[in-house]
Amino acid sequence: MSVKRVARRAYATAKTYRSAVAPSRKPLVTVYGNCQAAAMSSMLRSSPAFTDEFNVVWLPGAHELVRSDLPALRRILARTSVFITQNIRDNYRSMPIGTSQLRSFLPRSARTLTYPVMYYKGLHPYLVYVHATGDLGTPAPRTEGYHDLRFISAAGHGMDAVDAAAWMQEFGGAHDWIRETATASLTELRKREESLDVHVSGSIEVAAERAFWTVNHPSNAILATAIEAVHAALGVDVRPSDVQRELLSYTVVPVSNHVRRALGAPDSATSEWVVNYETVPEHELLSAHLEYYRSRPEVLKHALTEHSEVLAASGLFSVVQAKTVP
Predict the structure, then answer these.
(1) What does pTM read for this prediction?
(2) Does residue 221 register a pLDDT over 70?
(3) Total count of domains within the chain
(4) Model pLDDT, residue 5
(5) How many Å apart are CA 285 and CA 274, to the nearest integer?
C-alpha cells in the first residue's frame, strides 16, 4: 500500500498531495476520524495562518481503512507532531485502528487534540441506521446508510407509494417528542465533549436549521467552531476561512416543516433531498425505499424491531401496529 493512498484527501489537488507526502520542515498534523475528518482537514488547509506553520495530512477514515493500509499509516504517524482525532474504539472493525492504538505509533513529543464525533438528531429525528446486516448498517436505496422512520412506518403499514406520499403530507409529528429529541441529542453531545479538547455543541443552537445536513454531516458553521478551537489550542491566529462551499453537503436531508415548527424555525418551501449532489424529490426516495422493504421483508422486520421505542414515542407506532410484517 502506497503512502499516496494513505495520504489522500477527499478534496485533494496535485499541490495538496505533494505537500502531504513530500519532506517538509513544517511540523506534520494528521487528522483522523470518520467522514468529518476530511472536512476538518480541508478547512485547516484553507487557513493560511495554519498552513504557514503546519503541514496537514488527512488520514483515511476509520470506516475506510483496510489492513494493507496499516504499514503506511504507521509511517505517517511516526512523523506526526500533532494528531487531531475523534475517539475511535480499540479494534474497530477488528483492526488495531482505535485512537489509543494509533497513538502508540506517535513520537513521544507529539501532541494529541481530540474532537467529538459530531452527531445531532435535533433537525432530523426520523433519520436512523438499520443494522440488519452488520455493525456498519444496512444500506438503503440511494441514501446509502440512511433510513427514514416515516418510510419504515409506511412500509410496515403496507402502503403503496401514492398512499404513503399523501400520508406524509398530512403527518404532523409529535412536537413534544421532537423538542425532547433535540434537547437529548444536544445534551448527549455536550456529555461526549466533556473530556475532549474541542467543543462544538455551543454553536448548534446558533446555526439553528443550518447546523447539520444529516445527523452526522455538520455544516461549515459547526466545523468552523472546531477549527477555531484547534487554532487556539496550537496558538495560531484564527482568520476567515477560504472555504466557499459546504464541505459535507453532498447529502442533505430536508428538515420537515412540522419539525421546523416544533423547534420554532420558519417553514421551508421544499422537501427535496440532495443525494450525491443531485436534487431528488422526496417522493422518489420514498417509492424506492418502499420497494426495497417489499423485496427485503427481513430488513423491514429488523428495522421495526430495532426502532420500536422511537416509533412509538414519535407518534408513528399507530401506523406500524396496523400490519404484521412476516
Answers:
(1) 0.88
(2) yes
(3) 2
(4) 41
(5) 11
